[in-house]
Input
Amino acid sequence: MYPQVDILILSALEDEETITHAIRAGVKGFLPKKTNQVELSHAIDEIKKGNRYFGTDISKTVFNITVKNLCLKPEEEASDELRPRVIEIVKLFADGFMYKEIADQLSISIKTVETHKANVMRKLELKSTAGLVKYAIRNNIIEI
Output
């Protein structure tokens, strides 16, 4: 909503999927929650200068994500339309589970479930959960 705001995330989650979503959302920096005050201050200073800043471990993950994406062949990108976690969430919606039930079952937050669903709906240009279920059936993600 406010692209002019520079966002620095401090998170206990440091997995590729979380970091990828954060970068795609436009964050300027990402640090582990355990980051010390010195590095946090440095990150803020760098972001104020217009740079991006990722903690050392996060930088390694960002590098690995970049290498993976550069090594994908175009046909692999097309066939990898939905990531495994998103497919899992789509299946649970198709089975009639609610946001909270999905979050509890996958040990993630309700907000994460909402974000995954919103992203896939936007990516696939779908307007409703029913449309998502139809997509899942047509693409053999679920069976009736």
Notes: The chain has two domains: 8-73, 81-138. Strands lie at 8-11, 29-32, 53-54. Helices lie at 16-25, 37-48, 56-71, 74-79, 84-94, 99-106, 110-123, 129-138. Residues 8-73 form a domain with the Rossmann fold fold (CATH 3.40.50.2300).
